[in-house]
Amino acid sequence: MRLDKALQSQGFGTRNGCRALVEAGAVRVNGGLASDPDAEVDVTNLELSVGEVVWRFAPRVVLALHKPSGTECSHAPTHHPSVFSLLPPHIVARGVQCVGRLDADTTGLLLLSDDGALVQRLTSPKRGVEKRYLVTCAEDVTDAQLEALQRGVTLKDSPEPVRGTAARAGLHALRLTIGEGRYHQVKRMVAAAGNHVVGLHRESVGGLELPAELPAGAFLLLDDAALARVGGAR
Ligand code: URA
């Protein structure tokens, strides 16, 4: 691939912008200073350095972000900073999208990718990729509430009762696993069961757990093995 195109595909700017970066001496290819934007580069194991950014060429990116509270899953946030403000500009420029949305006050595992087909597959209700939430409630969690969540509760936008796998996680807390991702689904399900959500944290998507060592606000790039753990990706 031509160097200017390789840089552009990785989000480092327009083709002309990328050419200018090379001509200004801001680009290294596998550690060596680049001077010709028309040079052919082998993208297998290609390491690009652009200014301070060191980046391994990737045909697509899939990220796991530990979403902090007070962030919106939108490019045009209204009340809080966007989750995209937590990512490097060149990754945002690739057009990464959230794999489903979490509410502004929800924390935990949020996947993002620039592969639109992958995002569609992972969010498709047909695939039913399971999401597990740790839910903190305002009132004591009762057995009757857990049974209602297991049996299915009625939500306005669903003709069928909506159910999940529910388990107690403390006096005021439960774990709920659901295969869909309707608007405010967990909050509405818990309200329909007779309680009120005061804290919501997504622990896992498919078989992928939020890495314990990933602090709130940080992200990591998922390799194919980690993506396979999510399930529903193919
Ligand atoms: N269900 C909710 O109610 N909110 C979320 O952010 C995710 C699931």
Structure characterization notes:
- By secondary structure, the protein is of the alpha+beta class.
- It has three domains: 54 residues, Structural Genomics Hypothetical 15.5 Kd Protein In mrcA-pckA Intergenic Region, Chain A (Roll); 85 residues, 2-Layer Sandwich (Alpha-Beta Plaits), CATH 3.30.70.580; 75 residues, 2-Layer Sandwich (Alpha-Beta Plaits).
- It has seven helices and 13 strands.
- Strands 5, 6, 7, 8, 9, 10, 11, 12 and 13 form a nine-stranded mixed beta sheet that branches. The protein has a four-stranded antiparallel beta sheet with strand order 2-1-3-4.
- Helix 1 packs across helix 2.
- The radius of gyration is 21 Å and the shape is elongated.
- The model has no long low-confidence stretch (mean pLDDT 95).
- The structure holds uracil.
- The site of uracil has 8 residues, from helix 6.
